[in-house]
Design a protein that fits this description.
alpha/beta, seven-stranded mixed β-barrel, 7 strands, about 60% helix, about 15% strand, rod-shaped
Length: about 325
C-alpha cells in the first residue's frame, strides 16, 4: 500500500510537532518517558531560581524544577514544584535547600536527607532552606568585627573626652611641678648615695660593723651545740628549782633572820652574857686581866719549871707518908 504524498507530509509534520512538544516539556522538567514524583516546597525568596534548574542529591541529578508560583494569600511566599525520579527514595523529613551551583550564580536545589524511615510520596511538601549568599556570609563574619570596632571607637571617644577634661591647664601645671619635684628628689637621692660612697670609702665603719655582725653570727653558728647544752643546763636548773620546796626554805630563812634580829636587839640592850660583854666594860676588863694573869703564869711556868715540879713531888710524897 502506497501512501500518498499528502499523507507522508502529514505524518512528518505530526511527528515534528510531537518531538517539539516533548523537547519543550523536557526542558521544562517534564519527561514523559520516565516515572516521576511531583513534590513541593515553599520559600520566602528564591534568589533567581527558575524552572528547569537541577535538583541534586550529593551532587547527583535526580530531578528538575517544574514551576514557581506566588501564593495567592498575599504573603509573598513562592511555591516551587519539582519533578523527582521515583527511583530515588527520599526521607520525608528531608530539606530542599536552594544554593548556587557555580560561581556565576546559577541556582539549583539540593536535597539534604533527614533521618526519617518514611519515604517521600508524590504530592508531599518538603521543608525549605536557603543557602547564605557570599555577601551574607561576609556580612555575618564582618558584622561582629564592625560592632566591636564601633564599641571601641565609642570607648576611645569617651576616654578622649575624659582625658581632655582631666588634662586642663591647671592639671598640666601640676604635672609639670610634680615631674620637677621628682627630678629634684632623684638628684637628692643621687647626692646621698654619693656621700654614702664617700663615707664608706674613707672610714669603712659600716663595713667593719657588718664584718663584726658576720663574725658574731658565725661564732653563734659554730657554738650552736654549746649553746644548746647551756640552755639544757638552765632547763635542768629551772626544773630542780621548781621541784625544790623554796617556800619552806624561804620561810625558815625568814624565821632565822627574825631570831638573829631579836638576839642582836637583846645584845644591844645588855641582855645575857653577850649583851653584858658588848656593853659592860668591867666584864671585858676582868676577862682581859684574867688573860694577862694566865699569860704571866704560863710564862713563869716556862721560865721556872722546877718551882712547880718540886711542889708537886712534895705533895705526892706527903700523901705516901
Amino acid at each position: 500500500m502506497k501512501l500518498s504524498r499528502e499523507t507522508k507530509i502529514g505524518l512528518i509534520v505530526t511527528t515534528g510537532i510531537a518531538l517539539m512538544f516533548w523537547g519543550v516539556n523536557y526542558l521544562k522538567g517534564k519527561d514523559f518517558f520516565t516515572s516521576q514524583k511531583l513534590i513541593f516546597a515553599i520559600y520566602d525568596r528564591v534568589d533567581g531560581l527558575t524552572a528547569s534548574n537541577v535538583i541534586l542529591v550529593n551532587g547527583m541529578k535526580v530531578g528538575l524544577v517544574r514551576n514557581l508560583v506566588l501564593l495567592p494569600d498575599y504573603s509573598g511566599k513562592i511555591l516551587v514544584s519539582m519533578h523527582v525520579s521515583s527511583k530515588v527514595k527520599i526521607p520525608r523529613n528531608s530539606v530542599a535547600e536552594i544554593y548556587s551551583t557555580d560561581l556565576l550564580g546559577t541556582k539549583g536545589i539540593r536535597m539534604v536527607f533527614g533521618d526519617s524511615k518514611d519515604e517521600l510520596q508524590d504530592g508531599d511538601t518538603l521543608q525549605s532552606a536557603m543557602q547564605s549568599s557570599l555577601t551574607e556570609q561576609v556580612s555575618a563574619q564582618v558584622a561582629p568585627i564592625k560592632n566591636k570596632a564601633e564599641n571601641l571607637l565609642s570607648s576611645l571617644d569617651s576616654v578622649l573626652l575624659i582625658l581632655r577634661g582631666v588634662f586642663n591647664e591647671e592639671t598640666k601645671n601640676n604635672l609639670k611641678r610634680s615631674f620637677e619635684s621628682i627630678s629634684n628628689s632623684l638628684y637628692s637621692i643621687q647626692n646621698i648615695a654619693s656621700n654614702m660612697d664617700t663615707v664608706l670609702a674613707k672610714q669603712g665603719r659600716l663595713r667593719m660593723i657588718f664584718d663584726n655582725l658576720e663574725s658574731i653570727t658565725t661564732n653563734i653558728k659554730n657554738n650552736n651545740d654549746k649553746i644548746a647544752d647551756i640552755l639544757n643546763n638552765f632547763a635542768s636548773i629551772s626544773d630542780t628549782l621548781a621541784k625544790a620546796n623554796l617556800a619552806a626554805t624561804i620561810d625558815n630563812a625568814k624565821k632565822t633572820l627574825e631570831q638573829t634580829a631579836t638576839l642582836f636587839e637583846g645584845m644591844n640592850k645588855g641582855q645575857g652574857s653577850l649583851g653584858q660583854l658588848a656593853i659592860n666594860d668591867s666584864l671585858y676588863n676582868n676577862l682581859n686581866s684574867t688573860a694577862r694573869d694566865l699569860d704571866a703564869l704560863i710564862t713563869d711556868l716556862h721560865e721556872n719549871p722546877k718551882r712547880y715540879i718540886n711542889l708537886s713531888l712534895f705533895s705526892f710524897g706527903g700523901k705516901k707518908k
